[in-house]
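Researcher: Here's the sequence for the chain we discussed earlier.
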Amino acid sequence: MHMADALISPAVGAAMYGVSIGANAYAVKSVKNDGLSDKKIPVMGVMGAFVFAAQMVNFTIPFTGSSGHIAGGVLLAALLGGSRALLSVTCVLIIQCLFFADGGLLALGCNIFNMGVIPCLIVYPLIFKPIAAKFSWRRLGLASVAASVSAMLSGAFCVTAQTYASGVTALPFKTFLLLMLPIHLAIGLAEGVITAAVLCCVNQTRPEILRMGLGAEFEKIPIKKTVAVFALLAVLTGGALSLFGEKYGEIVRVVAIGDFSKEFCGGHHVENTGDIKVFKLVSESALSTGIRRIEAVAGSAVNIYYQKEFEKLNAELTKLDLPAVVFSGQTELKKLAEQLKNGYQQIENKKEQLKNEQKQLEKQKLQAALARLDEYTAQKETINNIPVIAVNIGEADRAAVNAVADSLRNYLGEGVVVLGAADAGKAVLLAVVTKKYQTPEFNANKIIQKIAPLVDGRGGGKPDTAQAGGRNPGGIPAALQAAKEMLRK
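Model: Thanks. This is the structure I predict for it:
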């Protein structure tokens, strides 16, 4: 469930940092109120180390092609109590992030919340404690499985929500969630069984340790023996078991490249590199600090990759009325890459051309509008001793309307300007009222709010300048007349 930085946006990462910091602050206060003696700290540390080591052991999830490891939050909470467990999990995750590149700094707040806050402060008090309160072997096992599954599914939901909110995944939220839940249900069941086994073992050998999570006094528990037991378990788990606890069988193949590299290798391999034939690097990205991810296709998959890339390219070319590029599986890969590059270059050139044409069109509209200034100034009226120019300037964009309004305001010095224009089939209204004629009841904002509905639109602004847009350019004459009527009242 460790999330990488690549899955989280800065906004979501910052928000989850805030939540996780707040939860840990609550945990610190809670532990402080209980009294944090020198005897308690070693127990928290060594149990955290045990969980840290246990997380290194991956188990295969049948029929999914995935693997998982325990999160350990429920186990720690059962042994230490919710608040102490959260602080231990937080320390484990920080160490994994900083020294083992497991997760990233940006995603650390999410990981602490998903793997620490949820199991320790939410699932443990709401699910584990009520079930395990009336102790029996059966209830302890049921509490372990129920709490572990609930924590894992809740964490998977949060991972999905955080990734979706970050805008990283192209999958719909429901689809993404349905992919996540079955895998994490299996991991939760496995963790529940492991947690139950550990707790039953602890209760059989040292029942006083299990009572720590239920509020027993540390001073009444043999601290040295407790620390020694879990320290030994941490060493054995992290050292002996983690190496072969992953996907390796009884015989492990070691691949050596001179003296430079030796690696355990458990995947499928070819006899020699010639069997790969064609190899195409598809992408390269950062998973976390110091960890890079590369993706590639090989053999017959390369043709399929290029075919899909050409389909994407031709879809973009079609949108811009550009000729499609024909894909042929017999074409050399170097030429296919050049065709893709040239095709996308055509798209960029076309977009740049359209952008320049748009700028030129806007410039022409502006020049055309300003060229008719004399025509607009000739329509000046005086209504109730207020100089007014209310005119429809025809086809013009907002930039042109603003430029004309500025010129007419300068022409009047003091007065009122109301303009209407049509821009790409939409109505544009703009009102200007100089300071001399502004009142609470009459200003540019009041004018626009009054006349905007006449063009099926709405808008607003400041007392000196306001504007609106609407769906009905045909209503502009009525809107200009309504503005004049406001002056007559």
